[in-house]
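Good morning,

Attaching, inline, the backbone tokens for the sequence recovery test we're adding to the shared suite. The designed sequence is right after.
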């Protein structure tokens, strides 16, 4: 085989050089990839490049002879699971050529981990296109949190949406049910959070300002309705996106989310009619579309929320006061 000159596609804009090569030549072994990069055999617009260099659409990449790894038929065929594809399609709330917003169910992990074999990330492989490109997660939700989950369908969209989330341009609203009534009815929770506990038992705790490995976290909350002094339905607007931020913040103010075994205190059940599930959902997400305009998606109430709303008499059609909360 001879030297090949390939052009970076629009969908590959922003991709690292090493990841670009692995995506274009999936049969290329890691050792061979490192060698051709280290020895300068790969050139970007005629210049030597580093593996982590970000590429731009339209650039020309010189690829040396790759032997068997460079053959078109060397690309491993992705395993297509029709059941996974059907399931993902069944939970789509919004979709266009670049983006999907999924309605993630309670109890389903977003990504794999210790002992986790079924998760959204794994199932997305069933929607890979003819070129092997598959949808990519842009952010995460906890296993027991339901609601809006954003997925990019192209590399270009993934790059743009990643920047949107990193710059905090995505506006997220969560709903939760907690025991009691927080005071004041609307407020701002601002703390530092750090991780405690060993692998598999991690928990975020409020840290001191300046404590090592801690991160600033800000959440606005508002009581939408309450059921006497028994429970409150809260609307939440996280400014930052720290691990378990909402769960840790509500524990911090003394109103841990119902059904939360990690942050909730052991207490007598308010009602046997309320499902023993985490009462937290990603209700709505608003963000710029990678190609212009705005994506604005609202997730329906999951069944365990509907049941709790019925028990407490909450009306999901009332105005949500968190909409007027600041964005910083």
């Amino acid at each position: 085989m001879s030297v090949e000159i390939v052009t970076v596609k629009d969908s590959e804009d922003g991709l690292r050089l090493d990841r670009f090569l692995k995506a274009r030549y999936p049969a290329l072994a890691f050792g061979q990839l490192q060698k051709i990069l280290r020895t300068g055999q790969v050139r970007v617009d005629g210049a030597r490049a580093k593996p982590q260099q970000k590429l731009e659409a339209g650039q020309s990449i010189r690829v040396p002879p790759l032997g068997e790894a460079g053959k078109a038929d060397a690309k491993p065929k992705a395993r297509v699971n029709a059941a996974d594809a059907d399931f993902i399609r069944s939970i789509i709330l919004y979709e266009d050529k670049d983006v999907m917003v999924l309605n993630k169910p309670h109890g389903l992990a977003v990504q794999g981990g210790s002992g986790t074999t079924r998760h959204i990330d794994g199932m997305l492989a069933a929607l890979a296109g003819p070129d092997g490109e598959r949808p990519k997660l842009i952010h995460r939700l906890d296993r027991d949190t339901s609601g809006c989950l954003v997925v990019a369908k192209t590399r270009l969209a993934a790059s743009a949406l990643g920047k949107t989330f990193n710059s905090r341009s995505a506006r997220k609203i969560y709903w939760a049910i907690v025991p009691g009534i927080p005071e004041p009815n609307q407020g701002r929770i601002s703390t530092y959070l750090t991780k405690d506990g060993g692998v598999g038992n991690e928990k975020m705790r409020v840290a001191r300002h300046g404590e090592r490995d801690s991160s600033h976290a800000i959440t606005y909350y508002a009581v939408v309705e309450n059921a006497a002094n028994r429970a409150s339905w809260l609307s939440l607007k996280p400014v930052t996106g720290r691990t378990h931020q909402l769960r840790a913040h509500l524990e911090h103010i003394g109103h841990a989310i119902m059904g939360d075994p990690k942050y909730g205190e052991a207490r007598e059940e308010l009602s046997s009619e309320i499902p023993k599930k985490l009462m937290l959902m990603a209700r709505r997400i608003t963000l710029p579309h990678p190609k212009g305009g705005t994506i604005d998606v609202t997730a329906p109430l999951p069944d365990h929320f509907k049941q709790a709303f019925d028990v407490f008499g909450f009306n999901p059609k009332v105005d949500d006061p968190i909409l007027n909360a600041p964005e910083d």
